[in-house]
Design a protein that fits this description.
single chain; about 160 residues; alpha/beta; 4-stranded mixed sheet; two-stranded parallel ribbon; about 15% strand; globular
Length: about 160
C-alpha cells in the first residue's frame, strides 16, 4: 500500500518522493503465489531503487536470530529503520516475531513510530521515548487510513 501511495503522490502532485525498496535476498518470492509474485515484480520494476540488503550491506545479526533466512529479514528490517526518519508499522502489539523485533529496534534507536493495529485499526505513536495518544491531526490520519483499508478490503 505504501509503495502505491508514493507513486500516486508523485504522479498527482509531482512531489519528488523516492520509492526505495529493500529486499532481504534475491529469490524471496520463489514460493509465493503467482499473483503475489506479479505484484512484487511490478514493484521491483517500477521502484526508483532496489536495495538487496544481504548483498550490499554487511549487517551483523544478533545472537538471538536462529536461522539464516530469518536473519536476512532481520537485516532488511534493520536497514529500513536505519535509513528512515520515521517508521510506520502494522503491528498488533504482540511482543514476539519480526515486526516486534523491528519495532523494538526502532524504539531503541529513538525513531518516531506510528503503529497501526490490524485488529482494530487503532493507531498509537512512539515519540521521545514513550507511547503517546493520538492528537487531532493523527486521528484524522487514522480515519483516512480506515477508509482506504475498508475501500480496498485489505489490512
Amino acid at each position: 500500500i505504501a509503495f502505491e501511495a508514493v507513486n500516486k503522490l508523485n504522479y498527482e502532485n509531482r512531489r519528488g518522493l523516492t520509492n526505495n525498496v529493500a529486499i532481504p535476498f534475491k529469490g524471496q518470492e520463489l514460493r509465493w503465489k503467482d499473483n503475489d509474485k506479479a505484484i512484487y515484480n511490478h514493484i521491483l520494476e517500477t521502484a526508483d531503487n532496489v536495495i538487496k540488503v544481504d548483498d550490499e550491506y554487511g549487517y551483523i545479526t544478533d545472537d538471538n536470530i536462529r536461522s539464516r533466512k530469518y536473519a536476512k529479514y532481520y537485516m532488511r528490517n534493520k536497514y529500513m529503520v536505519d535509513n528512515s526518519d520515521m517508521v510506520i508499522a502494522c503491528w498488533n502489539g504482540d511482543c514476539i516475531g519480526g515486526t516486534w523485533n523491528t519495532v523494538r529496534y526502532a524504539m531503541n534507536n529513538n525513531k518516531i513510530i506510528i503503529c497501526i493495529n490490524p485488529e482494530d485499526l487503532s493507531i498509537k505513536v512512539f515519540k521521545d521515548g514513550k507511547w503517546k495518544k493520538l492528537n487531532r491531526a493523527m486521528m484524522n490520519i487514522n480515519n483516512k487510513i480506515t477508509k482506504i483499508i475498508s475501500r480496498n478490503g485489505e489490512v
